[in-house]
Amino acid sequence: MYLIFAVLSIGLLILAEVLVKTGILSKNYGWTLILIRYIIAIVALILYSQKVVHNKFNFEFDLKWPSIIGWVVTLIFIVFNFWYIGDNDFTLSNNGLSSLLYCLGPAIFEELWLRGLIFNRLRIVNKLDHPLFKATFISAALFAVLHLILPDYSNWLDLLTQIITAFGLGVLFAGIYCITNNLALTMLIHFSENFNSYFITYLPWFDDFDLNDFIVNLIQTFIYLIIGIFLLWLFWRKKNSVKRND
User: How far apart are CA 193 and CA 199, in angstroms?
Assistant: First the structure.
């Protein structure tokens, strides 16, 4: 399925470049092909999941304990990621709109694919020992590898930072999805993280610390892992208590 997405994406990107350079398509409308490729990829993934592997995407609305913890974590991360938007130059020009779609498209597609399909299926495989742990690790590792495809790394330290951060986020997203059973929440956090990476280039509170970007990312990743593991533990504890009661 990802191969289909990659082929469609590359094809539409090449088509966009040709249409823009020949003057057939104005640069102001280049974002439309970005939108089209993500719509195609998302629709194809949903059809594959429902018709071929009969997988269900979950979007439950439950504010009871312990699900409420996942909702609170989601809210905190979203507020944090958008908090300093006023201190940065954010406009929805052509480039801004294209970047916004790059933030939104992967957030929806990758969460449907990695958490909604792969993680969701692996954690119910009875043949695996500790399926929840292995499903979390595999989906987080795939999430990290997926982010290595982008050729925008200037050195090995940037590459390592991307691997570590993406893996930590993968664990966090798995924890939020488990505890809330709602993919929309992981999509929202994923979008806010992408938005932060694209548009929030200045964070005032960093001025008070003499830290380089790598150390900052390590601290963030540690926070992602701690919160994600805690949410997974809450889910595991709730699941075991239900079994004992039965």
Answer: 10
